């Protein structure tokens, strides 16, 4: 299985948009918001390719040595194969020397993601009640990188 993490290009937007749309029922990103990321100097964007096909992506913001995972998903047809863990661990390697913490918000009900983050050493910093538009609580999680 050939896996490769590379920077997202603007031409990846259609496939990234589609993975995002199929992964998030209420908080999916618009094409415009994906396009906007390419103009933000603090935005880092990656895709995961498996045998040449984009099967996952992630977008982070890196501001003054603090990284924040803005969105991250694996194509639903390719889940539970270790790909999410692989992409996240590659990102953590890429952040080495650049960031001291990696934080993210996750829905309190999103057990697959919470389990993945916990398995990689993330800890819950606090709850953010009514964080999402449907009223669900977010967990703010953090991984210390140094
Ligand atoms: C979260 C997500 C990225 C995980 O990707 P994945 O490739 O399926 O995950 P992996 O196969 O690498 O699994 C790694 C670990 O995550 C956890 N996990 C993954 N899927 C799980 C599930 N359905 N139920 C419980 N735990 C799960 C497990 O701890 C797993 O480790 P294990 O296989 O040793 O038990 C994927 O489910 C996804 O894209 N979800 C929708 C988008 C999303 O929620 N993104 C995160 C928003 S904060």
Q: How much of the polypeptide forms β-strand, as a percent range?
A: 35-45%
Q: Helix share of residues?
A: 25-40%
Terminus-to-terminus distance = 31 Å
Bound molecules: coenzyme A
- By DSSP, the count of extended strands is 7
Q: What is the typical, i.e. mean, pLDDT?
A: 97
CATH architecture: 3-Layer(aba) Sandwich
SSE succession: EHHEEEHEHEE
Q: Tell me the number of structural domains.
A: 1
Gross morphology: globular
Stretches where pLDDT is under 50 for at least 5 consecutive residues are none
Number of helices: 4
Which CATH class is shown? Alpha Beta
CATH topology: Aminopeptidase
Please outline the major beta sheet.
7 strands, mixed
Descriptive notes:
- This protein has helices at 13-23, 31-37, 83-95, 111-119; strands at 3-7, 43-50, 53-63, 66-74, 101-107, 123-128, 138-144.
- It has a single domain (3-105), classed as Aminopeptidase.
- By secondary structure, the chain is α+β, with helices and mostly antiparallel strands.
- The chain is built from four helices and seven strands, in the order βααβββαβαββ.
- Bound molecules: coenzyme A.
- Residues 23, 72-74, 79-85, 104, 106, 110-113, 115-116, 119 line the site of coenzyme A.
Give short descriptive properties of this protein:
alpha+beta, 146 residues, 7 strands, Aminopeptidase, binds coenzyme A
